[in-house]
């Protein structure tokens, strides 16, 4: 019982906080699950290193690693190089926004790299009781993973030791990630002739994300984000929209970032997140909350999906025929397929149907059946099944249907791992129950769409 109004209001206050925590934790948990085991490349602008918030940023990265995310970290060193140059009484030299790395600048680059690497490693080694990574020992790994070549002479300007990424040793990095290390990459590269080259941190990040086929590249940058012409913040851009944006007048730095993001997406990185460094906990917010705080540039996962038409019958039969033979999918005659072709969605690549699924709505009962989900054997292992399922879910929501069900004999676990729950046969819509084949004895699974 409460002894005073004050203690009761304290209780309510605490209970609100408890509720907030519980609901936050529940909301974050699917993301924790989804990101585990995935490779994420993170690049951080050198300016962030000079702020009091930097230790928190690094501890957040350590937290990601402790949650099973495979992290490659690249820190920019531009202001640190400037500082080193100033200490040596030398002036920075730039041409077209690119540093000319002469002998003096190169020694500053090496000094700055060493200093930054040491401070990041020391922060990752902290075991303070007030650090989120207390009791977790984070191993780091670094090495000669990047092969570089000189930028050379352009329009008569010799960029000296400023280089470009020539190759990323993805195998060696992967081995360190497999060992559970956070891989730290300085923006340096080595040439087969034994020279050292100063590289742009974001170039290294983009090329590394591409070489590792990383799930994401998170670019923690100085820019506050991407804004449209009316100064509205843009949360998401498809690859095409990002390409269109490049033709607008943009801040040079943003132009470089978008260019790198587009290159990474075009070459297989599914998602590039541009997030501002100024927001405390920005990486955690971006990864574990629904809306994030940055601008996401992604390839359109639904790009090659469309409604099937009568010309797709041959391709569909080629895809599902062997699965019907094997008893994995229910047999459909050509005539039935022709009659129901409008329920089918297909994903097409280079003239071949590589995936399909059908959606049969029972709108009166707020249900829809997902059927005939299949991915061509040669195209499996690249999330196509998940992408088809997301598309089907989106279609169901568009029809104001909140539950989808599936009947399956051999793929139960695949659906269960994606939020479907076993259900009795009598949960099926009446009309569908009448057609249930007791000899086939399929199991029913239902998913409530969020
Ligand atoms: C189910 C299916 C559409 C998924 O396609 P996909 O996204 O390309 O996925 P993959 O086949 O590469 O498998 C992805 C993951 O699901 C698992 N998986 C695949 N088939 C599974 C099954 N029948 N049961 C349980 N898990 C399965 C894979 O092992 C893999 O997990 P892992 O990476 O942890 O090993 C595809 O495997 C398929 O076409 N299967 C045959 C048709 C079928 O069963 N359709 C369902 C009709 S009800």
Which consecutive residue ranges, at least 5 long each, have pLDDT under 50?
A: none
Q: Could you name the CATH class of the largest domain?
A: Alpha Beta
Summarize model confidence as the mean pLDDT: 91
> Which small-molecule ligands are present, each listed once?
coenzyme A
Rg, nearest Å: 27 Å
Provide the CATH superfamily of the largest domain: Acetylglutamate kinase-like
The figure for the number of domains is 2
- Under the CATH scheme, the architecture of the largest domain is 3-Layer(aba) Sandwich
Helical proportion, percent range: 25-40%
* Total strands: 23
* DSSP strand content: 15-25%
Strand order of the largest sheet: 5-10-2-1-13-15-16-14
Using the alpha-carbon principal axes, give the shape: elongated
End-to-end span in angstroms? Answer: 38 Å
What composes the largest sheet?
A: 8 strands, mixed
* Separate helix tally: 14
Can you summarize this structure?
This protein is α/β, with parallel strands linked by helices. Helices cover 38% and strands 24% of the residues.
Summarize the structure in words.
With 450 residues, this protein is of the alpha/beta class. The protein folds into 2 domains: 35-298, Acetylglutamate kinase-like (Carbamate kinase, 3-Layer(aba) Sandwich); 305-448, Gcn5-related N-acetyltransferase (GNAT) (Aminopeptidase), CATH 3.40.630. It contains 14 helices and 23 strands. Helix 3 (78-87) crosses helix 4 (103-124) and helix 6 (201-212) runs parallel beside helix 8. The radius of gyration is 27 Å and the shape is elongated. The two termini are 38 Å apart. The model has no long low-confidence stretch (mean pLDDT 91).
């Amino acid at each position: 019982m409460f002894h005073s109004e004050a203690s009761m209001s304290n209780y309510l206050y605490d209970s609100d906080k408890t509720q907030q925590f519980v609901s936050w934790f529940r909301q974050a948990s699917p993301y924790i699950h989804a990101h585990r085991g995935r490779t994420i490349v993170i690049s951080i602008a050198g300016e962030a290193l000079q702020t009091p918030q930097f230790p928190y940023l690094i501890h957040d990265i350590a937290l990601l690693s402790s949650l099973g995310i495979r992290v490659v970290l690249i820190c920019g060193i531009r202001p640190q190089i400037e500082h080193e140059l100033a200490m040596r009484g030398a002036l920075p030299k730039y041409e077209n926004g690119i540093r000319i790395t002469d002998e003096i600048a190169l020694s500053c680059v090496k000094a700055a790299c060493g200093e930054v690497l040491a401070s990041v490693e020391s922060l990752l080694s902290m075991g303070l009781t007030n650090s989120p990574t207390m009791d977790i020992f984070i191993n780091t790994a670094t090495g000669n993973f990047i092969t570089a070549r000189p930028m050379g002479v352009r329009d008569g300007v010799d960029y000296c030791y400023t280089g470009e990424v020539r190759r990323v040793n993805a195998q060696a990095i992967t081995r360190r990630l497999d060992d559970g290390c956070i891989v730290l990459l300085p923006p340096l590269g080595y040439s087969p002739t034994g020279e050292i080259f100063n590289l742009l941190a974001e170039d290294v990040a983009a090329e590394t994300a591409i070489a590792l086929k990383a799930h994401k590249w998170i670019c923690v940058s100085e820019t506050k984000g991407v804004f449209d012409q009316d100064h509205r913040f843009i949360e998401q851009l498809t690859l095409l929209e990002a390409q269109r944006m490049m033709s607008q007048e943009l801040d040079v730095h943003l132009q470089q970032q978008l260019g790198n993001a587009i290159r990474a997406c075009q070459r297989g990185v599914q998602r590039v997140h541009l997030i501002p460094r100024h927001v405390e906990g920005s990486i955690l917010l971006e990864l574990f909350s629904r809306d994030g705080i940055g601008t996401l540039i992604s390839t359109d996962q639904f790009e090659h999906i469309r409604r099937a038409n009568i010309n797709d019958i041959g391709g569909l039969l080629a895809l599902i025929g062997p699965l019907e033979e094997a008893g994995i999918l229910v047999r459909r005659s050509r005539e039935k397929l022709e009659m129901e072709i409008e329920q089918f969605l297909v994903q097409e690549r280079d003239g071949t149907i590589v995936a399909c699924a059908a959606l049969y709505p029972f709108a009166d009962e707020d249900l829809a059946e997902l059927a005939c989900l299949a991915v061509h054997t040669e195209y499996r292992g690249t999330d196509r099944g998940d992408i088809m399922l997301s598309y089907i879910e989106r279609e169901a929501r568009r029809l104001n249907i909140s539950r989808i069900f599936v009947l399956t004999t051999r793929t139960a676990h695949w659906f269960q791992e994606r939020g479907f729950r076993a259900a009795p046969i009598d949960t099926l819509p009446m009309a569908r129950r009448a057609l249930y084949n007791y000899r086939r004895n399929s199991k029913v699974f239902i998913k409530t769409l969020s």
